[in-house]
Design brief:
By secondary structure, the chain is of the alpha+beta class. It contains 17 helices and 14 strands. The chain has helices at 6-11, 35-42, 44-50, 52-58, 79-95, 105-125, 129-142, 279-316, 322-347, 360-385, 388-391, 395-399, 401-410, 419-433, 436-447, 452-462, 465-476; strands at residues 19-21, 24-25, 59-61, 68-70, 147-150, 173-178, 181-192, 199-202, 217-222, 228-232, 255-266, 270-273, 350-352, 355-357.
Length: 482
């Protein structure tokens, strides 16, 4: 059965995985008051594939089997495939209240990257990683798997190499080679959605040297594998009231510190084991795909910010004010620039071994532009909304007959607009920009899918400065090229 229902997906999470939340072991994440919200959010991916209006976008006929599968598992071969992938990610994020799902997008990003790099490793070392990855890819496709990716090591002292750290497990490493597989130890941080997926794919986080070859490791294992422990972050959501938290009470991500304590990985799940020259290559190749995913899921959140700012401007009676129009124009320019750059990255893709890779330069410019301007967008939305975003009354005050009439009388806005509607719009802005959830998004803008500095380095290294210098020399009448 290549396609699972949302209910089958959720039931599959009851598999004995080890998850801790706020200091307690969680025996059943579907019964947990906070984690169940994240699980239901990620289940949107499976629900969209079932809905008639979305089925054609989110599913496709498999070229190998002829069965209908999740489109995420189709290897992109050209611009059209990348544009459909972008549309899927943007649509699912919009359906998720501006919060990305990230249970198939990121995993298939990793599969595509490993496929490209495995071919190179096999050519040098005579390994059979490519065949393993192809088999694994087909298995994920046929069981409609959900996937997380653990790439960022906890790193310890960042001025030191992995083997120079206070203890050797600040980076995930191979501690034992066996005839039937490897044993790994270490931890990965910022692993999104790990509590809500079938498998976690582990990738190297950086380039390394031969002395650190045990840290050159890539593999995939079921999340309930013995020795895997997930410590879930409590940040990014603060309550269940739909009045105070209209988005985050229904949609949020959960990150984990993902610990590997002498975890055995069978050979068919090992995709790199000591080939240190390719650790950096794999890390960077994954980023080429994943930053395209990143800039594909940003616009729905920005559209929501624009809508919330425009709505409260109407409710406050200031929608025609020049400064409001100026801010709205700036917000529109912001989101449409990100959207256009994402499309351009697909249009200018390059095909390697039959896989379409989004244009690296354009993708990184899009990601940097988004991250560099997000806090300005938040400022503009908050400026339009006003101080009630953080000084308004609580839900309990609306239910208290001694204060309800006062709130209705004094917190109204434009004539004809119910006071409660105005407060709901204000609370939406608070949830998006001035709550734990809002702060989560602000930090995510800076650090998710790589920091601002990481994108700047990629942009600078990828640009042909010699061409520009030669152009300048020619214009200045200086002989000879660089």
């Amino acid at each position: 059965m290549p396609l699972r229902t949302a209910e089958e997906y959720l039931e599959g999470l009851r598999d004995g995985r080890t998850v801790y939340f706020r200091g307690e072991l969680v025996p059943d994440i579907l019964a947990h008051p906070d984690l169940c919200v994240g699980a239901e959010h990620t289940a949107i991916d499976y629900r969209l594939a079932e809905e008639p209006e979305h089925r054609e976008l989110f599913t496709a006929l498999c070229p190998e089997t002829g069965e209908r599968i999740s489109r995420y598992f189709l290897t992109p071969r050209n611009t059209d495939d990348l544009l459909k992938r972008r549309e899927m990610i943007e649509t699912s994020t919009r359906e998720g209240g501006g919060v990305v799902l990230l249970i198939k997008e990121i995993g298939t990003d990793a599969i595509f990257a490993m496929t490209l790099v495995a071919r190179q490793i096999d050519a040098r070392y005579g390994t059979n990683y490519l065949e393993r990855i192809k088999t694994y890819h087909a298995a994920c496709r046929d069981r409609d798997a959900s996937l997380a990716v653990a790439q960022t090591d906890v790193k310890g002292d960042r001025s030191l190499l992995p083997s120079q750290q206070t203890h050797p497990d600040y980076y995930v490493r191979i501690v034992e080679h066996r005839p039937d597989g490897i044993v790994v130890c270490g931890a990965k941080a910022h692993t999104t959605g790990t509590a809500f997926v079938d498998d976690v794919i582990v990738l190297p986080t950086r380039a390394i040297s031969g002395e650190d070859k045990d840290y050159a490791v890539a593999f995939s294992i079921p999340v309930n594998t013995p020795g895997v422990k997930l410590i879930a972050s409590p940040f990014g959501f603060t309550g269940h009231s739909q009045y105070h938290h209209p988005v985050s009470s229904r949609h949020h991500l959960v990150e984990t510190l993902t610990i590997f304590d002498n975890v055995f990985v069978p050979n068919d799940r090992v995709f790199m084991a000591g080939e240190w020259e390719f650790a950096g290559v794999l890390a960077n190749t994954f980023v080429e795909f994943h930053r395209f995913t990143a800039v594909s899921y940003k616009p729905p959140l920005l559209d929501l910010l624009i809508g919330a700012a425009s709505l409260i401007a109407v409710y406050n009676g200031i929608e025609k004010a020049s400064h409001v129009r100026d801010k709205a124009t700036r917000l529109i320019t912001y989101v449409e620039t990100v959207r256009a750059l994402t499309r351009a990255a697909a249009m200018d893709c390059h095909v390697i071994d039959g896989i379409a890779v989004p244009d690296t330069m354009t993708t990184n410019i899009a990601k940097h532009y988004f991250a560099n301007h997000y806090h300005e967008a938040v400022r503009d939305v908050q400026d339009i909304a006003g101080g009630l975003v953080v000084t308004g009354p609580s839900e309990a005050d609306w239910h208290n007959p001694e204060t309800r009439d006062d709130l209705d009388r004094y917190l109204g806005g434009r004539k004809g607009i119910p006071t409660m509607d105005r407060m709901k719009a204000i609370n939406l802005i608070r949830d998006l920009t001035a709550s734990d959830f809002g702060g989560y998004h602000e930090l995510l803008a800076i650090h998710a899918e790589g920091s601002l500095e990481a994108q700047k380095i990629t942009i600078f290294r990828g640009y042909d400065l010699v061409r520009c210098i030669n152009l300048a020399k020619k214009a200045a009448g200086i002989e000879g090229g660089v």
